[in-house]
Amino acid sequence: MSKKIVVLGAGLVGSAMAIDLNRSHQVLSVDIDANALHFLSDRHGISTRQADLRNAQSIRSAVQDCDLVIGAVPGYMGYATLKTVIETGKDIVDISFFAEDPFTLHDLAVQNQVTAVIDCGVAPGMGNIILGYHNAHMQ
């Protein structure tokens, strides 16, 4: 059974992730940009919802029925979006590099039993995290 995944942000990277994930999962792409959403819907058959993701209630509504959230919003929105998703109790993988310290959300994530993988961008991103972990534990 395929998972229900919500991709918050339909920009260049968010759209690419939605297209890839749509091959084997039920994807909902959410963004304020109607043109980006039409591209995903018309050309790739992806479900879309137009919403202002600066609004916490819009985020809560979008993610309420999903199994996983992908955060692909602009950096200036990243921290607030991550916090809202954690408050909903949904697991999230986030590529929105932001200046705020994401570890201030650790206790909130534990409280809500959420796994939040952050700074998972193309590069630097998860590759750097994995290589850093490997390097720290090499003998």
| Radius of gyration, whole Å | 15 Å
Proportion of β residues?
Answer: 15-25%
Shape: globular
Q: What's the mean pLDDT score?
A: 93
User: How many runs of DSSP E, i.e. beta strands?
Assistant: 6
Tally of separate helices: 6
- CA-CA gap between termini: 41 Å
Kindly describe this structure:
The protein has 139 residues and is an alpha/beta fold. 44% of the residues lie in helices and 17% in strands. It contains six helices and six strands; from the N terminus they run E-H-E-H-E-H-E-H-E-H-E-H. It has helices spanning 12-21, 34-44, 56-63, 75-88, 106-111, 126-137; strands spanning 4-8, 26-31, 47-50, 68-71, 92-94, 116-117. It has a six-stranded parallel β-sheet, with helices on both faces. Strand 1, helix 1 and strand 2 form a beta-alpha-beta unit. Helix 3 (56-63) packs across helix 4. The chain is globular. The mean pLDDT is 93.
How would you sum up this structure in a few lines?
This protein is α/β, with parallel strands linked by helices. 44% of the residues lie in helices and 17% in strands.
Topology:
Layout: E1 4-8, H1 12-21, E2 26-31, H2 34-44, E3 47-50, H3 56-63, E4 68-71, H4 75-88, E5 92-94, H5 106-111, E6 116-117, H6 126-137
Helix pairs in contact: 3-4
